[in-house]
Design brief:
378 residues, alpha/beta, Aspartate Aminotransferase, domain 1, Aspartate Aminotransferase, domain 2, 2 domains, four-stranded mixed sheet, 14% strand, globular, histidinol-phosphate transaminase activity, EC 2.6.1.9, aminotransferase, amino-acid biosynthesis
Length: 378
């Protein structure tokens, strides 16, 4: 007995953790700073941490009430109906629900390259095909309607990422709406706003609801997560906001109790912790600016809680940096073998990362100059 043919599927490659790296290098975990997974440097919302501790004794119960309460709270936040909020086990869970609701076997999904691997993974899990549109490094990963539509060919789902991972670029709402207008009636435009809190941009929920001068649309959905600004990556909590015409679909495609009791209670506490979110956003803004001003290489403008950096040989630089206690993301898996993605850390973490990477780049440049002149060690 064997599983079905999975040869077209790729495994998701996550950023490396401190414990994993410390074991591999036989080092003390306290020596390392991890800036590889776009996690919140301030940890979870303190209110959420309290809620998790208080809820632990109720972990034997299914989260029916908590699930409904959190759905209502999110719906109120976005001024949509409860039925338009699809809670999920992380943003990737919401992606799966949309795939289930939309894709028939053989339908194609259009995804950005580089981009989040799980868009395509989910499509393939649901027997769909995957096609790509390119966000060009030479064009600073600029996002607009023409870039997407040049590659569009009747695809059932089109994914946009704003802010984009790993570059941090965003796409204006008018471009999102233009894509929706110029694609087929059967096409769903999904705007992934996992890093939306860090960007000074209006959400694509506006055209779903017909607000801010847009006509209401039934062909746009928005993804959001509690993993980043709220610091709840470990409890896995995300959601989609969908058109109100989709009210009946969620109950037919979601798993029973799509988010756990602990996750729902943490989300209920975190969603009102504006102080924690504001602190997190300000830290990311300061960190991005510091890296742009002080890294001695090209740093792309970003509206996420990370920056993309051109280092030449990403694998080598990431390895050398890791040896010195700073874990960053080699973007080879994104198809960018000359780039690193660096998560925005605290002031101390950011300064350490910049100093370390600059040292590594300087040493590699000296090494290259020595090789060019034929100089070797005695």
């Amino acid at each position: 007995m064997q599983p079905r043919d999975l040869s077209d599927h790729v495994a998701y490659e996550a950023g490396r953790g401190i414990e994993e790296v410390a074991r591999e290098l036989d080092r003390d975990p306290e020596e390392f700073v991890k800036l590889a997974s776009n996690e919140n440097p301030h940890g979870p919302s303190p209110a959420a941490a309290v809620a998790i501790r208080e809820t632990a004794s109720n972990a034997s119960s299914y989260p029916k009430a908590a699930h409904a309460d959190l759905t209502t709270e999110i719906a109120d936040r976005w001024a949509v109906a409860d039925e338009q909020v699809w809670l999920a086990n992380g943003g990737d869970g919401a992606i799966d629900y949309l795939s289930r609701a939309v894709l028939e076997p053989g339908d194609s999904t259009l995804v950005p390259s580089p981009g989040f691997a799980y868009y395509g993974m989910s499509a393939r899990f649901h027997h769909g095909e995957v096609r790509e549109y390119e966000l060009s490094k030479d064009d600073d990963f600029s996002q607009d309607a023409e870039t997407v539509l040049e590659s569009y060919d009747g695809d059932r789902i089109v994914y946009l990422t704003s802010p984009h991972n790993p570059s941090g670029s965003t796409i204006p709402l008018k471009e999102v709406v233009e894509i929706a207008e110029r694609t087929d009636e059967k096409t769903l435009v999904v705007v992934d706003e996992a890093y939306g809190e860090f960007a000074d941009r209006k959400s694509a929920v506006a055209p779903i609801e017909g607000r801010d001068g847009f006509e209401a649309r039934d062909d746009i959905a928005v993804l959001r997560t509690f993993s980043k600004a709220y610091g709840l990556a470990g409890v896995r909590l995300g959601y989609a906001v969908v058109p109100d015409e989709w009210a009946d679909a969620y109950a037919r495609v979601n798993t029973p109790f799509a988010a756990s009791e602990l996750a729902c209670r943490a989300g209920l506490a975190a969603i009102d912790d504006d102080e924690h979110v504001q602190r997190t956003v300000e830290t990311a803004s300061d960190s991005r600016a510091y890296m742009r001003d002080n890294l001695e290489t090209h740093v792309w403008e970003s509206e996420g809680n990370f920056v993309l950096v051109d280092v030449g040989d990403a694998e080598r630089v990431a390895e050398e940096t890791q040896e010195r206690g700073v874990i960053v993301r080699d973007c080879t898996s994104f198809g960018l073998p000359d780039c690193l993605r660096i998560t925005c850390g605290t002031e101390t973490e950011t300064e350490r990362a910049v100093e370390t990477i600059n040292e590594v780049l300087a040493e590699l440049e000296l090494e290259a100059d020595g090789n060019d002149t034929g100089v070797t060690d005695a």
